[in-house]
Write a structure and sequence with these properties.
The complex is a heterodimer of chains A (1033) and B (264). By secondary structure, chain A is of the alpha+beta class. Chain A is built from eleven helices and 66 strands. In chain A, strands 14, 15, 16, 17, 18 and 43 form a six-stranded mixed sheet that branches. Chain A has a five-stranded mixed sheet with strand order 60-66-65-62-63, with no helix packed on it. The longest helix of chain A is centred in the C-terminal third of the chain and has 40 residues. With 264 residues, chain B is an alpha+beta fold. Chain B is built from five helices and 13 strands. In chain B, strand 10 and strand 11 form a beta hairpin. Chain B starts with a helix and ends in a 31-residue tail after the last strand. Classes of the chains: A alpha+beta (1033), B alpha+beta (264). At the A-B interface, helix 1 and helix 7 of A face helix 1, strand 7, strand 11 and strand 12 of B.
Chain lengths: 1033, 264
């Protein structure tokens, strides 16, 4: 017993001691880092794979839930016009969603998509929300990995069936049909055959919920093969809520296939429970129709779109009102009006590969279709479709940038081609350009001429394209006489040499190099893989349904990286676990995989990255998930791969996809896993999950540094691209800073960008990514959240005058906020109606300003630099001229405001005095008030609009207009504008003189009369008094 | 035996490690008691009969907001821009607003609130907030747990209001002062969420009042900052200030019904 306790203590203490010894006490944690915001730039134009759709009708309004393959759960409360992600704090791979028919605020989400392609992600169980998706509780089945369907008993909210497809890559885990009778507190497995089979479908009879159909599916994927079908598969029926089951397939009396079966879809007609349909994968696979509740079945259509790719399309849906109308989403969209005997393929322009279908409960011809490229809506039963344009769930594999301003981003997506778009300003769907086709992978500009772009689709299909015309050529290396067949990975690696501009590498089992833009290739390696023939039988892959799409091609090179510090040092990692290094440009190679400690042999090298700081240093991630090993493996070597150190810590979650070392600060690391992004500021000693800007727990597959802007662009596989603007502050975040109560962090100098987006009002469904802040950014670190007392940030000019108070951000940890670069707005004249054209101040000129942070008694300052847009044609002198012109108008606007106030103030006095004056005096007082009113009417609009357009333009309106319109220009004031300013000044002066004259003429006499009558004298408002009343700070 | 011990050790370690940093979660009542204390105490809170808060938007334009509350259930808000005032109010029965900025030329005639707006007005008229005497008011409060708000932990309280709206209140776990409030209101049958982040607390007559507010939609990149200029308790306010104004005469010089600019 003593021994046990000692061991326990030792085990407990060891990691703690190790962790604490070399490091200061403060650790960068995810919450403190979350003030470093990432912004989602979409795109939504191509959307991404949708795995499930459901919804409900309440008071005539349709609420929808969409589950994305690895992009979370999206909710629409307006039938699909606008969408909100509601599952961002949880795993993003979604298999099934169900709304409780008795209480639609209760929603169930099964994580882990069940469309079991090679790139499918992994879930971690079932979740429940009782508040319509605002918050979620994990309810169990944590080791299910994939969930295909959820059915809630329509008569009892506590009874829920969950079809757990189970592990794809390994046996065991939570798999089979599960049932809860206590709202998810406990689960009972009620249908199961073996450790290789899971549940692929469940259908509960809405009229008699004791009747349940379910299918089990035996299946297994490896890195190099897929097997669908086996003795564990079958279609089952229960009439007692799952206590006992009858196997329907294999029984000759039923009419269903008697031999081996694979994945089976099943659906009960909502309008007639006797009508049941099943699409059965078998040697003689087809759709089967039962008209007697599943006792006997008639074999129906077996056309290509009915039996196509069951692992991907095992879905059949029955029209809610017509029990003989059956839909079969598959590669295409097929519909039958005769109970499955004949099918017509319908549908116009819709993305192929269909996984989900939802009928509007009020109109079954109004339907929502989930595809590999987003959600489409039809109002004519599938004949024509429109796309939902605002679901940014793209599954990027890779991302790159160019050197433009704003720079472009490039990337390839699962089943959605290769695209280029902008990193800022131009962020709506129309600004994205489709470059190529197929599934998209590596896409990047040619550094020798960025107009030309390399773009790649599956299996190494590489092209070089003109990004302006989209013309180009395929440049994939082809076998020469006598060569073995080249084996190209689904996601074939392509890499640029950091040492020879324009030199390109691509790998099959061999590594190739091109120095002429891919026109010719030189083989610079032997077969770098294990060349294991057992992993090369793709033509036999698929099981009952052969499936060889290049997705299983194995024993290939998967990742390539040349050292930027030493030409000829090239790393290549393979999908079968070899990590190869050449130090002489390919003349000789060494496999160093066996030197990596704690790594199972043969583990897929998911990423290798030569250090940008040191020739002998490299980072590598390994991914064992295709063998069922979900652990993160991340390592570093400093001696050309001779020894490796693990950088994996308990901070991490999800298997590792990509690691990058910061190009400026060597101990700043970025790690993308299947479960999110992690950042280390101490060389991987510990990690903080990145969640800034609500960055979700989404697979991260690649990252690109943009050196001019110091940005990081993140390629997520499920939520599109994200940008962390300006890493300068993060690079400065040292352990010493973490200890400080408050400290500024440096930011990049602000260089203005004189470009405006060209959007228009195109409805609420219009999508645009989040833009970068327009203005200089101020960053600082705070050890604690500021709660008590004043905290503010002010901008000061070079004379120490406060230009603006911009408030403050008060978070614990990282803080960033933007000054919009605007000076104070002018005080504007008051008229009968508001006039908003002078609502903002002039833009501050380029130069150095001071930021002053006040936190109770602590005051710290630092300089803030603004630079002009180097792309602008306007000279500094011209900028100064327009600034001065606008400041002149600024003062004219304030002068006018003062004079109007002076007049109305005096008018008020005159009216007050008149009320108690004798008739003669009253007449004089009223006469002056009326004269002044005439002048006021020259200065501002005086007619109440009350909803109408009075079109009353006076001096105020003209002045504000000119001030406003000159705010759009960076060029100098034109002669026309200068003349207009002069004429407005003349007009103003004329009015002010008239007012002064009127007052000077009348006031002494009136005050004398008032004095006689013991009345208060009239006083004109002085500028000093007005300033004191209206100027703050 | 040795092997068993080692195995046991391995299986126990992650559990212990996972539990170590968690402290025991207080009960709702414990949190509320601390919350009242942090504010200055229930007695002082309830002694306030009227409250006026004057604030300015952190914006290039000069925009002043005046918010007035009076027991039992009166409130009025005036937003002043360029001498024009957008107002809304509630006198316990009738809710109204005047919007001179609407449409082309706006209107200075008071319009009645919609049914949904009226519900929110009822919530806003509750001077002590939804947590004080929540049960008696017909609200339902649950302590959901601890969540991070702007990098630091906060207790999350969910309030289902009697009006049918709901509110999430986040209390800083150090000071027990509110740091964030998300209101879910209804607009034409649709739920709309508004988030307010609070800070810069200062003591006014023994009560802690936030002097910095940030208002926005949850998760949105930008929040509108508001700085409180002045807080007054127990200044006399006539009930008529909260009643729906009768149509004003057009063309009269803009009246100044409330202090547009504080002269302190």
């Amino acid at each position: 017993m003593r021994h046990l306790r000692t061991t326990l203590f030792a085990a407990l203490l060891a990691p703690v001691l190790l962790a604490q010894a070399p490091q200061p006490a403060v650790k960068l944690d995810a919450d403190a880092l979350s003030g470093l915001r990432a912004r989602a730039i979409g795109p939504a134009v191509m959307s991404g794979r949708i795995s499930c759709i459901t919804g409900y009708m309440d008071k005539g309004r349709l609420t929808l839930y969409v589950g994305a393959a690895s992009g979370g759960v999206w909710k629409s409360v307006n039938a699909g016009t606008t969408w909100q992600p509601v599952f961002d704090k949880h795993i993003q791979s979604i298999g099934a969603i169900a709304v409780d028919p008795s209480n639609p605020k209760t929603v169930w989400v099964g994580t882990g998509e069940s469309w079991m392609r090679n790139s499918v992600s992994v879930g971690d169980g079932i979740y429940k929300s009782v508040d319509g998706g605002d918050s979620w509780t994990r309810m169990g089945l944590p080791d299910s990995e994939h969930i295909a369907a959820i059915q809630v008993d329509p008569t009892d909210s506590n009874v829920v069936y969950v079809a757990a497809t189970g592990h794809l890559w390994s046996p065991g885990g939570d798999r089979g049909l599960y049932k809860t009778t206590d709202g998810g507190k406990t689960w009972k497995r009620i249908l199961y055959t073996n450790e290789d089979s899971g549940c692929a479908a469940v259908a509960v009879d809405p009229r008699n919920p004791k009747v349940v159909f379910a299918s089990l599916w035996q299946h297994r994927r490896t890195g190099w093969s897929f097997e669908s079908g086996g003795p564990g598969s079958g279609l089952y029926k229960s009439t007692d809520g799952g206590s006992t089951w009858t196997r329907l397939t294999g029984d000759p009396k039923t009419g269903l296939p008697t031999g081996e079966v694979g994945r089976i879809a099943v659906a009960i007609a909502p309008s007639d429970s006797r009508q049941v349909y099943a699409v059965v994968e078998a040697k003689d696979g087809a759709i089967f129709h039962s008209s007697d509740g599943g006792a006997t079945w008639v074999r129906g259509n077996a056309g290509p779109n009915i039996i196509v790719r069951p692992f991907y399309f095992s879905l059949v849906m029955v029209d809610p009102k017509n029990p003989l109308r059956v839909y079969k989403p598959g590669f295409e969209f097929s519909a039958s009006d005769d109970g499955g005997k004949s099918f017509a393929t319908i549908g116009g322009s819709v993305h192929s590969d269909l996984h989900a279908l939802f009928f509007d409960p009020s109109d079954p011809e109004h339907m929502y279709l989930g595809t590999d490229g987003g959600v489409f809506v039809s109002s004519d039963a599938g004949n024509t479709w429109s796309m939902i344009p605002n679901l940014p769930v793209g599954q990027f594999y890779h991302v790159s940038t160019d050197s433009g301003r704003p720079y472009h981003v490039y990337g390839g997506l699962q089943d959605n081609s290769c695209w280029m778009g902008y990193s800022r300003v131009y962020l709506s769907n129309k600004h994205w350009k489709n470059l190529f086709g197929g599934d998209g992978f590596y896409t990047f500009p040619d550094p020798t001429n960025e107009r030309y772009v390399y773009a790649e689709s599956q299996g190494g299909m590489l092209a070089r394209l003109d990004s302006k015309t989209l013309q180009g050529r395929l440049i994939k290396p082809e076998e020469k006489a006598g060569d073995p067949k080249y084996r190209w990975n689904w996601n074939t690696p392509v890499a640029l040499s950091p040492n020879e501009k324009g030199t390109l590498y691509i790998g099959c089992q061999f590594l190739f190099r091109s120095r002429d833009h891919g026109l010719s290739w030189e083989r610079i390696s032997p077969d770098l893989t294990t060349n294991n023939p057992k992993m090369q039988n793709q033509e036999e892959s698929g099981g009952l349904t052969v499936d060889n799409s290049s997705a299983e091609t194995h024993t290939t090179i998967f990742t390539i990286s040349e050292s930027p510090k030493k030409a000829g040092v090239i790393w290549a990692g393979t999908d079968d676990g070899n990590l190869q290094l050449t130090r002489n440009g390919g003349k000789s190679w060494e496999n160093v995989a066996a030197r990596v400690p704690g790594l199972p042999t043969g583990t897929w090298v998911s990423w290798v990255e030569a250090s940008p700081h040191d020739a002998g240093t490299a980072f590598a991630t390994f991914d064992g998930h295709t063998t069922g090993d979900m652990k993160p493996y991340v390592y570093v070597t400093h001696d050309f791969g001779q020894t490796w150190t693990s950088l994996a810590t308990p901070d991490l979650a999800g298997f590792a996809n990509v690691v990058k070392q910061d190009p400026v600060r060597p101990d700043l690391l970025y790690l993308g896993t299947e479960n999110g992004l992690f950042i280390s500021i101490n060389g991987g000693h510990d990690w903080a999950r990145f969640k800034g800007g609500r960055f979700p727990e989404v697979p991260v597959r690649d990252m690109a540094f943009q050196p001019q802007e110091a940005d990081l662009v993140i390629a997520t596989h499920g939520r599109g691209l994200w940008v962390i603007d300006d890493l300068t502050s993060l690079r400065a975040l040292t352990p010493e800073i973490l200890q400080k109560d408050v400290a500024f962090l440096p930011t990049r100098p602000y260089v203005s960008l004189e470009q405006r987006s060209d959007g228009w009002m195109s409805g609420d469904s219009d999508y645009a990514g989040e833009d970068a802040p327009h203005g200089p950014v101020i960053a600082y670190w705070m050890k604690k959240r500021h709660m008590i007392g004043e905290m503010k940030i002010e901008i000061l000019d070079d004379k120490g005058q406060v230009l603006q108070n911009i408030g403050a951000s008060k978070a614990r940890g990282f803080n960033r906020l933007t000054w919009d670069r605007l000076l104070r707005a002018p005080r504007a004249a008051l008229g009968a109606n508001p006039e908003g054209m002078a609502g903002s101040g002039p833009e501050a000129l380029a130069g150095t300003y001071t930021v002053r942070l006040t936190k109770n008694k602590d005051v710290i300052t630092e300089p803030l630099v603004i630079r002009d847009d180097p792309q602008s044609a306007t000279t500094p002198k011209e900028r100064e001229a327009i600034f001065q012109a606008r400041m002149e108008m600024f003062h004219m606007i304030e002068d006018l405001a003062f004079h109007v106030e002076q007049v109305t103030d005096l008018q008020a006095q005159l009216r007050t005095r008149a009320a108690s004056a004798d008739p003669a005096l009253k007449a004089s007082l009223t006469a002056l008030a009326a004269d002044l009113e005439t002048q006021r009417g020259r200065m501002v609009s005086t007619r109440e609009a009350n909803g109408a357009i009075t079109g009353e333009e006076r001096l105020r309106e003209h002045l504000h207009q000119l001030y406003n319109f000159t705010g759009f220009q960076s060029g100098p004031p034109s002669p026309n504008q200068l003349a207009r300013i002069a004429s407005l000044r003349q007009e103003a002066t004329g009015i002010y003189q008239t007012v002064d004259h009127l007052v000077a003429q009348s006031l002494p006499a009136l005050n004398a009369a008032l004095a006689q009558a013991h009345g208060q004298p009239l006083q004109t408002l002085t500028r000093a008094a007005w300033d004191q009343r209206t100027l703050q700070n | 035996m040795k092997r068993v011990a080692a195995l046991l050790a391995l299986s126990v370690v992650p559990v212990l490690m996972a539990q170590a940093p968690q402290t025991t979660q207080p009960t709702l009542d414990q949190v509320l008691v601390k919350y009242y204390e942090a504010q200055g105490g229930l007695a002082k809170m309830k002694a306030v009969q009227t409250r006026r808060v004057i604030a300015k938007l952190v914006a290039p334009m000069d925009i002043t907001i005046t918010e007035e509350n009076k027991r039992p259930a009166y409130f009025r808000t005036d937003v002043q821009v360029q001498g024009q005032t957008q107002s809304s109010g509630y006198d316990g029965k009738t809710g109204w607003h005047v919007n001179p900025f609407a449409g082309y030329g706006g209107s200075k005639t008071a319009e009645p609130m919609t049914e949904d707006e009226l519900k929110s007005a009822q919530d806003q008229a509750d001077m002590d907030g939804s947590l004080v005497d929540w049960s008696a008011k017909g609200n339902k409060v649950t302590l959901v747990g601890t969540e991070s708000v702007d990098g630091a932990p906060a207790y999350k309280l969910k309030v289902d209001l009697k009006s049918g709206n709901s509110e999430e209140i986040y209390l800083d776990t150090d000071s027990y002062l509110p740091v964030k409030d998300i209101k879910t209101v209804h607009v034409r049958g649709q739920e709309v969420k508004q988030e307010v982040v609070m800070g810069d607390y200062k003591e006014v007559n023994g009560l802690m009042v936030p002097y910095a507010l940030e208002i926005g939609m949850p998760g949105a990149p930008q929040r509108q900052k508001v700085q409180v200029q002045k807080v007054e308790f127990n200044v006399p306010m006539d009930d008529s200030r909260f009643a729906m104004p009768v149509a004003e005469k057009p063309a009269a010089p803009a009246p100044a019904p409330q202090p547009a600019v504080s002269k302190d």
